[in-house]
Design a protein that fits this description.
This protein is mainly β. It has no helices and 17 strands. It has strands at residues 2-6, 11-16, 19-24, 35-36, 45-50, 56-60, 65-69, 74-79, 89-90, 99-105, 108-113, 118-123, 126-131, 138-142, 145-150, 154-157, 162-165. A five-stranded antiparallel sheet has the order 4-8-7-6-5, with no helix packed on it. Strands 9-13-12-11-10 form a five-stranded antiparallel sheet, with no helix packed on it. A four-stranded antiparallel sheet has the order 14-15-16-17, with no helix packed on it.
């Protein structure tokens, strides 16, 4: 199975054996609501990854939130309340400005927050900002190491954002 954030249609899609179906969200309807299938609403869902329990973690960019989608389409909110901001802290209080991408490494979850110019790490029930890269767009874990891509044509490695590749040109 392949899962896709269909950003401008406001839904999460599932592709199985060449058949595309909607797992969660209501096509063309923006909002923020937990629920199952079409009851759930998103506002510009973007990056996604598989969580340790097999569910999907989805960046809900327009709501500044991180949402969890079970494989039977039940959506719940992990972090954020629909109000955008740049706040670290407990999951119930943390905020994102413009979350773009998400990945996980063991029990840690990383979210690139473009306008906050940081990668936010979700660990042990808290969100902390890792500063050192401007406007991160994409992130990935490779061999247990975080890689961050910035729009200035550079790739950074690790939580200290060591320059790894790209000239900036």
């Amino acid at each position: 199975d392949i899962y896709v954030s269909d950003t401008y249609n406001q839904v999460i899609r599932k592709i199985s054996n060449g058949i595309v179906s909607t797992l969660a969200g209501k096509q063309g309807v923006q909002g923020m609501k937990d629920g199952k299938g079409e009851e759930a609403l998103f506002n510009l869902p973007r990056g996604l990854c598989i969580d340790s329990d097999g569910s999907l973690l989805v960046v809900d960019c327009g709501n500044g939130s991180i949402r969890r989608v079970s494989l039977d389409g039940v959506v719940s909110t992990l972090v954020g309340n629909g109000v955008k901001g740049d706040r670290d802290g407990d999951l119930s209080q943390a905020q994102f400005l413009t979350p773009m991408d998400i990945c996980r490494n063991g029990n840690d979850i990383y979210v690139s927050d473009y306008r906050a110019s940081c990668v936010k790490k979700i660990s042990n029930g808290k969100v902390i900002s890792l500063k050192g890269v401007n406007n991160p767009t994409c992130i990935a874990i490779l061999n247990g190491c975080l890689y961050t891509i910035s729009p200035i044509h550079k790739i950074f490695r690790g939580e200290e954002f060591e320059h790894f590749a790209g000239s900036g040109e």
